[in-house]
Structure formats: structure tokens, C-alpha cells
Amino acid sequence: MATHVPSIGKWYHDIADSRLFKIIAIDDYTLNIDIRYEDGEYSDIDLNSWSQMAVVQTSPPQDWHGSIKTIDSEWLFTDSLYSSAADSDPFAGIEPDTQFGWDEY
Questions:
Q1: pLDDT tens across 50-65, in order?
Q2: CATH classification at residue 4
């Protein structure tokens, strides 16, 4: 009885298990949904199981970043990245070369 279409990056509450989870990937070919629970446990479910689940879309839990251990490579594939220096120019400190050195070869 899931009335929500699974959406990557959204948090859901499984009412039957009373657990919060986030959808991290959806495989269009196998119709599997990869999820990560609030405690950091990974799991996957198929689309048929999703349609039978009683889930409610919810907001992220308080301090969920502390409970989930992520590695830097996982953040490369997220939809929402946070950068504290978003307004600064990343190339501001780079000086251009005055001489390329192509004549030396």
C-alpha cells in the first residue's frame, strides 16, 4: 500500500518496522531499490515489495550524518552537495604561467 513513488534522496518511515530509511539508488533494469537505514545498514527491496509496504515520506532524522558513516567517494554521486565556499572563485589563487616552456623541446 505504498502510495509514494520511490525517489532517490528522500527519507521514508516504514510503519510496520518503525524504521527510517533513505533511498540511495533505483535500478531501472532489475527494479531494485537500494536503501540505507538511519543506523547505517544497507538493504535493497524490489518494486513489488515496495508497493506492499506501508511507508510515509518524512524529513531526515536529527543528526543523521553522525550515525551514517560515509566515505568521500559516496558523496560524488549525491544530488545535493554542500560547499561552504560556493561563492568564492576556485581558480582565484592560481597564477597563470608566463612561459609555457614549449621552446625547450
A1: 989 999 999 888 765 5
A2: 2.30.30
pLDDT at 100 exceeding the cut of 70: no
- Burial class from Cβ neighbours inside 10 Å (0-12, 13-18, 19+) for residue 47 reads middle
Give me the mean pLDDT over the 82-96 stretch.
Answer: 58
Domain that holds residue 23: 1-80
Instruction: Quote the CA–CA distance of 46 and 37 in Å, as a whole number.
Output: 16
Give burial (CB, 10 Å; 0-12/13-18/19+) of 33. Answer: buried
In a domain, 60, yes or no: yes
Structural domain tally of the chain? 1
Tell whether 51 is covered by a domain: yes
DSSP letter at 76 equals: G
